[in-house]
Amino acid sequence: MAMPQLQEKKEDTMGQKMIVVFLAGALLALASCVRMNEAPRRLEAGEAIPLNQVPAPAKETIQRELQAARLEEINLLREGGQTIYVVEANAGGKTLWLQVRADGKLLDKAISEDLKLDQLPPEVRAAVEKELKDGKVHGLRRSTRGSRSYYEAELLVDGKEVDLTVGASSKVFERQVVEPK
Question: Which value, to the nearest 10 degrees, does the dihedral of the CA atoms of residues 50, 54, 60, 66 take?
Answer without folding.
Answer: -40
